[in-house]
Amino acid sequence: MSGISAVICAAGTGARAGFSENKILHAWRGMPVLLYSVSAFSALADEVIVACREEDRARIDALLSPYPNARTALGGVTRAESVYAALGACSGEIVLVHDAARPFVTQKVIADCIESVQRFGSGVCALPATDTTVLAEDGCIRSVPARQAVYTVQTPQGFLRCDLLRAYDEAFRRGRITEFTDESGVYAAFVAPPHLFLGDRANKKLTYPEDFLPAERTGIGIDTHAFGTGDHIVLGGVNIPHTRGLIAHSDGDVLAHALMDALLSAAGLRDIGYYFPDSDDRYAGADSMQLLKETLRLVNAQGLAPRNVSVTVLAQAPRLSTYIGEICNNLARALSLPAARVAVAAGTNEGLGYVGEEKGITVLALAMLG
Hints:
The chain has helices at residues 33-42, 54-63, 79-89, 107-120, 161-173, 183-190, 254-266, 272-275, 288-300, 324-335, 353-356, and strands at 4-10, 27-28, 31-32, 47-52, 70-74, 94-99, 122-128, 135-137, 140-143, 151-160, 196-198, 217-228, 232-235, 238-241, 245-246, 306-314, 342-347, 360-369. It is of the alpha/beta class.
């Protein structure tokens, strides 16, 4: 078989994503969504055809300029019309059809698709269902297919170009094209049952606004408290005996405060001084672990939750090694995290600076949200 053509479907509007532009032109991690797929396919295909709308064509042509084997073709109102038009622009014996809104496709998946077409005449990227799947009617379950027989279909989907074109010709001729949501359905109806190959769970489709949010959001928090009078300090909700206490409006839990700032920062919110100001008498002597839980609620309201946290305490004194386990457990409970996802470390400052001179304690915290 000679020649491999890749058709990338990019003629939609992406209205469900809520952007003012086509979602595949939206920048994600510094690059338009479309170019992730173009880059992956251009390395393995002889030509890449991007089916697009007329109003997006000039902009996409400019984006494709670094890819000499990529060009645009005018798409249609529906996906089927776009693929059909792009097939007419293809020259390869094998054609791979892919959704531009699936930017996470890997070259391994593409290579597997090509291999499947070479061996079986077709290759449809799919994953075995992990959830029970039902067939419903009028809001009620009517049947439950055996889970081992159910797959979810992704792209790319590969075929011999002559076969796929013949299937589309027949679907349009019979007026049945609206019955099908992708190429595998058209091929199955008019050529043969298409062959499946194993896809990748990371190869998801970007559809809604939340899909475009970073998979992980990281924040850093730093807090310092000076020593004053007292007979103990509080770190992570643990009372630790010491010859002095920490000066603060609340209970002085400098560890909890740094972690609160890290969580708020990762969520794109204001700092703890905004939500829990020291000018407010309600927080005089407050239990900072309760404030940490309040902070978690603010984070959760953004649709986010901690995935893991890491905290480092810089204190010349007191020695903290015997308290680390209890602190970790307290933080895990407060944040509804497994203890294994909470890390707390402690170190001295080798006698240097205000920490080394035992004038205060500084805590650095990192939080990852998802």
